[in-house]
Amino acid sequence: MQFSFFQNEKFGLAEIYTDLTGFTWNDHLFPNPQGFLAWCKANNLKNTLNLHFASGIQKWEDTFNEMVEAMGLNASALYVPWKPVDPKFVNNFLKITLKPLQDMGIDFWWLDWRQGEEGPKTGINMPNLNPTFWINYLFFTNPYQWGPIDEPVKRPFLLHSWGGLGNHRYQIGFSGNVNPSWSSLNYQVSFTLRASNVLFGYWSHDIGGHLKPPPAELYTRWIQWGAFSPIFRIHSSKSALDDRRIWVYPLANYKIMHEFMVLRGSMVPYIYTYAREAHDTGLSLLRALYFEYPEADESYIFNNQYFFGPHIMAAPITQAVNETSQVVNKTIWIPPWYR
Q: What integer pLDDT is reported at residue 123 of this predicted model?
C-alpha cells in the first residue's frame, strides 16, 4: 500500500478497495483484520470489500453453520443458496453474514454481479425483475448497515453496476474491467457524459484500465481524465506486473500524474458542492456542452468536452502524441463569450 507516500504527498487517499469475493478473511493475508481496520479508521480511510455472492454461503465461510440453521436447512447441506427474493434469506444474509463485517469496520460494499439479468443463475424466479436493480435496492436499504429506510442513521453508499433506468437512486456505478487502450479511454468520456442525461452522474471507472499494465503516456492521460471524472478510483488485476503506483513510471509521467492527483484532492470542496446540487436538482457534476449551450451545433459535435460543475470546462486528451511532432492535435470549442 505504501500509505505514507499518499499521506506525505497530500493525495487525499480516502478508500481502500479489497478484492475478491467471499465473506471470510484470509488469515494468511490478513492475520489481524480487526487491527487492520482499526488502523484504517485511525488514518481516516474508508474500507470496502468486493462481493461475488451468486454462489451463496459456502461451507468454508465463518457464518455457514449459523446460516444453515437460520434457513432451516438440513445439517448435511453443502451450501446455502443465493435467494435475493426470499425475505428470510435476505434478512439472514444481511444480519448474520454481512453485519459482523460491518461492525468490524467495513464501511460499504462493492458488489460484483456477473450472472446476467435473467435465468437460473440469478437466483430470481420472478418475471420482469432485474437482479442488478433489485440487489442495489437491497444493499441501499440494508437496515443493519444504514438504519431504518425512512430514517437512516448513515447515508447509504455502495459500488455496483448500473441496473437500468431509475437505478441512479442507489449505487455509484462500477463500469467493469476495462482493457487499457486509447479507444477505451476515449469512449469513457462521452459514455459518462451521456449517462447524465438519465440522471446517472456517478460512473466510477478503472483508471488506467484493469486487465494489463497501461503504457506510461496512456496512464498519464487516464489520470488526467480521472481528476475531472465523477469518481477517482485506480484499480488493476492481481498480477504483480500490473502496477498502478505512479512512482514506478518514468519521472516525467510521475510528475504530471502527481500534479493532477493533488489537484483532484484540492477540488474536493468544489466537487462536494456540486454533488449536493446534483442531489437537489438532478443536474450531474459532469455536464455535456448542450446542457449549457443547447442551441450551439458544437455542443453536439464536441462530445468529449464538458463542464465539470458550472465553472470548469474540461476537454480530456484521449489520443497519443504524434511521434514526429511530439504534440497532440486536438480541437476544442470555446463558447462565444470567451472569444
A: 64
Beta-bridge partners for 50: 110
β partners of residue 47: 16
- Residue 136 backbone phi and psi in degrees, to 5: -60, -40
Q: CB count, 10 Å around CB of 168?
A: 20
Domains of the chain as residue ranges with CATH: 3-283 (3.20.20.80)
- In sequence order, what are the residues at sequence separation of 6 or more whose Cβ sits closer than 8 angstroms to the Cβ of residue 172? 157, 158, 159, 160, 202, 204, 230, 231
Tell me the C-alpha distance between 46 and 16, whole Å: 6
Provide the pLDDT for residue 249.
94
Q: Where are the alpha helices (DSSP H) in 93-215?
A: 99-104, 131-140, 143-146, 182-195
CA distance 225 to 262: 14
How many other CB atoms are there within 10 angstroms of residue 223's CB atom?
25
Residue 162: closest CA among 122, 126, 135: 135
pLDDT tens-place string over residues 70-108: 999 998 999 999 999 999 999 999 999 999 999 999 999
- Taking the model in full, what pTM does it have? 0.88
